[in-house]
Amino acid sequence: MENNLERLLDETLNNPGVVGVLCADKQGLCLGVKGTATPESSGIVVALSQQAALLKPAASTAPVICLESDKGNVLVKSHEDTTLVIHKMPVY
Amino acid sequence: MGCCFGRDEDKRTQVESPDERSRLLVDPGRHPSSRPINSEYGSQSPSSLTKGDEQSELNRILHKAANDVIDVSAIDSHTMEQHEYLDRARTYSSRVAVVVTGTKKPSSSLLVLPQGVSVPYTVLADEPVSLADINMINVAAENASKAVKGVKVKHREDLVVQFPQT
């Protein structure tokens, strides 16, 4: 069931600096969301990850995307058919 | 005479018999005394005819030269006054301002981008993404993929629901 996914999202959110987590499938469907992340952004981040993967088509794994701003960093990573997004504030 | 030209020419000018080969113009430097322009004597003689022709020819050359000459100094004498210069500068600057504001309007209306980062220099000057963050997202994504694969739909209720007939 989805308990494993829920637990994983909670564990990820407990990391220092992490304020939001989102998990989506390859079609942009939001599978789980915690913290500051919103389900409406799942389609955008999945599309962004797929576009970024086109930069290196020969690479075996999808790249890690980091959106840097003054409101924290957004890390996006796709693994197989699942995309995970972490919203992380800088820790000083 | 101190002439350095040929002898035939000297002979012809000394003889002073006007014919079809006689020169209408005589160099005044060479013969200053032999043919004065304003001499009253011999007005009916053939030599007076050559003098008149000579005068008209000189006038013609003078007019031609006066028409051909472009007086550059007269053109240059028109210098721009200070107030005229200021007027032109004002006119040009106002026209440039009109052109700049005219092209700015459509470009600003077309380009509507949100202001993503209010202070870009702080973001750019910040530390790069740490390796710990990259490792964290890598591990979490891998675990999430596994967790999503484990999600299975359990059949508990009927998939087809009968709505009550009204």
Automatic annotation (TrEMBL), chain A:
- Which of UniProt's keywords are assigned here? Cytoplasm, Lysosome
Which terms does the UniProt entry file under GO BP? cellular response to amino acid stimulus; negative regulation of apoptotic process; positive regulation of TORC1 signaling
Q: What is this protein called?
A: Late endosomal/lysosomal adaptor and MAPK and MTOR activator 5
User: Can you quote a single GO CC term?
Assistant: lysosome
Q: Which family does it belong to?
A: Belongs to the LAMTOR5 family.
- Quick one: where is this thing mainly located? cytoplasm
A GO molecular function held by the record: guanyl-nucleotide exchange factor activity
The keyword Cytoplasm appears for this protein: yes
Q: Where in the cell is it found?
A: Cytoplasm; Lysosome
UniProtKB/TrEMBL annotation, chain B:
Basic and acidic residues: bias regions: 1-30
How is it placed in the membrane, per its record?
Answer: Lipid-anchor
In the record, what terms sit under GO molecular function?
guanyl-nucleotide exchange factor activity; molecular adaptor activity
Can you tell me which residues the record assigns to a coiled coil?
none
Q: Where in the cell is it found?
A: Late endosome membrane; Lysosome membrane
Sorted alphabetically, the keyword list is:
Endosome, Lipoprotein, Lysosome, Membrane, Myristate, Palmitate
Q: Name one GO cellular component term.
A: Ragulator complex
Give a GO biological-process term. positive regulation of TOR signaling
**Bias (Polar residues) ranges:** 35-50
Main localization (coarse) = membrane
What family does the Swiss-Prot or TrEMBL record give for this protein? Belongs to the LAMTOR1 family.
What is this protein's name?
Ragulator complex protein LAMTOR1
